[in-house]
C-alpha cells in the first residue's frame, strides 16, 4: 500500500470515527434521559416500533447500499455512476410505495395480533419513519462512496444533537411518551434528509433519461444476494426483540434493548471504520492489488480483535457500574445480559469486517451464505432459550449464532483466496476469555483486582500477538512521516 493510499485511509478513518464517537456521546445522553424519566413499559413499546421500522427499511433498501458505495468508489466513469445512483433511487422508491400500501392496508391487524392493540395504533407512523430512513441511508451511501467522510460524520452528529434537544424539551414539559418520541424520529429524519440533499449534491447524480435497462439489471443482479443477506442479518439481530415482545411483556424488550445499547454503540464505532475500510478495500481489489488487500484485511482483523476484546472484558468487570452511569438503577437486572452481548459484539464485528472484504472482492454471495446459517442457528437457539432464560437466553442465542457464522466465514474466505490468519485473530479473544475465567476462579471482587486483570490482558496481547506490534509500528511510522513533512517543506 502506497503512502497516499494509507494517508487517505487513516484520514477518512479519523473523520468517521470522531464523528461517530461524538454522535454516540450525544446518543447516550438521550438514552440516559429516557431510561431515567420514561416508564419501562413505554420504552419497550418504542423499541418495538423502531425494530419494525428497521425491518421495513431493510426490505425497501433492496440490499443496494454496498452496491451503491462499491460502484461510486470504484473506477467507473461519471455517466455510469449517474446510472447506478438513478437505478438505486428508482428501485427503492417503487418498493417504498408498495410497502406503504401494504402497511396501511394490513399492518394494523397484524401488529394487534402479534404485539397487542397498544402497538397497532402506530401503524400510520411507520411509512413516514421507514420512508425517510431509506432516503437518508441512500444519501449517506453517496457520501461514503465519494469518500466525503467529513460531511458523513458531521451530519450524523447534527442529527443526534437535534434528537437530544427534542428529548430534553419533551422531558421539560412532561410529555416524554411513545407518540412524542415517534414524532421526534420523523422530524429528525426529515431534517437530516434535507441537509444530506444539499451536501451530497444528489440531484447532480440523478439522470433518469440516460438510464439503460442493462445497468438496472446489473445493479439488481449484484444486489439480490446482498438483499437476502440483509434480511437474514435483520432476522438474527432482531428476532430476539420480536420474540420477547410477542412472548413476554414490553418491559423485557426494554431491558434487552438497554443491554444492547452499549454493544450497538461500540458496533457503530467499528462501522465508522468499515465505512472507510470498504471503499478502500474495493479500490485495492479493483486495481488487482490482491496481496495488499489480504494484508490489510488480516491486520485490520487482528487490531479489531484486540481492541474489541479489551472493550468487552472491561465492560464485563464493570457491568453494574456501566448500567448505573449510562442508564438508571431500574435496569441493573440487565447487567448479565450486557456482559454476554459484549462478547457477541466482538464476534459480530469481526464477521462484518470479513463480510465487507468478501463483497469488496466481488463475492456478494458469501455474506448471504453465512447469514442464512447464522439466522437459522439463532432462531433455533432463541426459541429454545428465550422462554426459559428471558433476556439472558436471547444474549446466549446471539453468541451461538454469530460464532457459527465466524467459522463459516473462515472457510469461505479461504476458498476465494483471502485466507484469514485465524490463530492471530483468535488469540485476543482467547486471552480475554481466559482472563475472565481466572478472575472468576479467584473470586476476589475488588476494583484493584479488576484493573489489574485488564492491564494483564493488554500486556499479554502486546507480548503474544505479533500482528498487533506490526500495526502499532506502521501507525507510528505513518504519523511520524506526516508530522515531519510540513517542517521539511517549510525549510
List the helices and strands and how they pair.
Elements: H1 3-37, H2 40-61, H3 65-73, H4 78-115, H5 117-120, H6 126-145, H7 149-173, H8 178-200, H9 213-247, H10 250-286, H11 290-317, H12 319-326, H13 335-360, H14 365-389, H15 391-415, H16 422-442, H17 447-464, H18 466-490
Describe this structure in words.
Residues 486-491 have low confidence and may be disordered. The protein contains 18 helices and no strands. It starts with a helix and ends with a helix. It folds into 2 domains: 12-211, no CATH class; 249-472, no CATH class. It is 86% helix and 0% strand. With 491 residues, the protein is an all-alpha fold. The longest helix is centred in the first third of the chain and has 38 residues, at 78-115. It has helices spanning 3-37, 40-61, 65-73, 78-115, 117-120, 126-145, 149-173, 178-200, 213-247, 250-286, 290-317, 319-326, 335-360, 365-389, 391-415, 422-442, 447-464, 466-490.
Label the structural class.
mainly alpha
The radius of gyration over CA amounts to 23 Å
Spans of at least 5 consecutive residues whose pLDDT stays below 50 are 486-491
Helix content: over 70%
Mean pLDDT: 81
Number of DSSP strand runs: 0
Q: How would you spell out the order of helices and strands? A: HHHHHHHHHHHHHHHHHH
How many individual domains? Answer: 2
Please report which band the strand proportion falls in: under 5%, 5-15%, 15-25%, 25-35%, 35-45% or over 45%. under 5%
Sum up the overall morphology in one term.
globular
State the helix count: 18
